[in-house]
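Please supply some protein, with fold tokens.
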Amino acid sequence: MKAAQGEIWLADYGTPVGREQGFLRPALVLNGSMLDTHRMELVVAVPLTTANRGWVTHVEMTQGVAGLRKTSWAMAEQIRSLSTTRLRRRIGLADEEAVGRVLAVMQHLLDMP
């Protein structure tokens, strides 16, 4: 299975531990071509939530965008590598602006220039 940057997939995050996100939920794929090129069968993704907590690490994705039924927030602080076997079905494709905002938040989280 191949998932590209910007795609939103329904992903099985499994049983959460502590404050981790878990269970079946949409996820925004962020990996670039390196994972595809090396056939690692992994994606780097952030889970989405429909709970607006007003956190600066959450990036809004409007209802209808990328096939989302509800307005959702990409949780940049919850970045995680997932096996491609955890991906159930493709929901849609986020626009480049939304993906860019998530990547910008992640740069700040990691204190990258």
